[in-house]
């Protein structure tokens, strides 16, 4: 009789990045407007290649950023399978409010209106996080930049394990944790000690974008435990 597979958390290797991005894509599908706009066509081969390239570049330059994987193990001899990913970062300084300061806008968003829209979304997205950093008295915050669990392996404990890893690190560093969550993720974060500060983040964009779907995110924080 096979034992029940268990979930373990480990550092994501460079070779894991394409699989990690695929997990992101399949986890959110087209139900997360921020992901759809930040990673155009993420469910296509070209979009996944581009997204994987950007993930790897982020991983290599982010000295205070940790890429994690949740791995499904078993005693059956089958290869371990990546079923979830998380990106945690110690943000000591506010993030650039202009997306062009950290991304090649023309390369990743060749269409002018799409580019303009994502620039406006980003400016709104980072505002609560940057406010928390500003109010941290120079310590910064420990931010959950991303959490994604493959839809075939949700409710197996992978999400909680990845969040718990970051919470433990935040406690060690004595830092406030922050996360921007979809409605699906809020219950998990609350279970892990986060509390809602902004029930629905504001995404103010130009009137010409009124017909476009905007993110619906909750901003949550967690105080470090001793």
Q: Which key phrases capture this entry?
A:
alpha+beta; Aminopeptidase; acyltransferase activity, transferring groups other than amino-acyl groups; seven-stranded mixed sheet; GNAT_dom; 226 residues
How does this model look, in words?
The protein is of the alpha+beta class. It has a single domain (6-222), classed as Aminopeptidase, CATH 3.40.630.30. It is built from seven helices and seven strands; from the N terminus they run E-H-H-H-E-E-H-H-E-H-E-H-E-E. Strands 1-2-3-4-5-7-6 form a seven-stranded mixed sheet, sandwiched between helices. A hairpin with a 7-residue loop joins strand 2 and strand 3 (81-91). Helix 1 (17-28) packs across helix 3 (45-61). The longest helix has 23 residues, at 112-134. 34% of the residues are buried.
The protein's oligomeric status is: single chain
Distance between the termini: 42 Å
Low-confidence stretches: none
CATH superfamily: Gcn5-related N-acetyltransferase (GNAT)
Which helices and strands appear, and what pairs or packs with what?
Elements (H helix, E strand, L loop, with lengths): L5 E6 L5 H12 L4 H6 L6 H17 L3 E9 L7 E11 L13 H4 L3 H23 L6 E9 L8 H16 L2 E6 L4 H6 L3 E4 L19 E5 L4
Parallel strand pairs: 4-5
Antiparallel strand pairs: 1-2, 2-3, 3-4, 5-7, 6-7
Organism: Microthyrium microscopicum
Protein name: N-acetyltransferase domain-containing protein
GO molecular function, one term: acyltransferase activity, transferring groups other than amino-acyl groups
In short:
It is built from seven helices and seven strands, in the order βαααββααβαβαββ. It is of the alpha+beta class and 226 residues long. Strands 1-2-3-4-5-7-6 form a seven-stranded mixed β-sheet, sandwiched between helices.
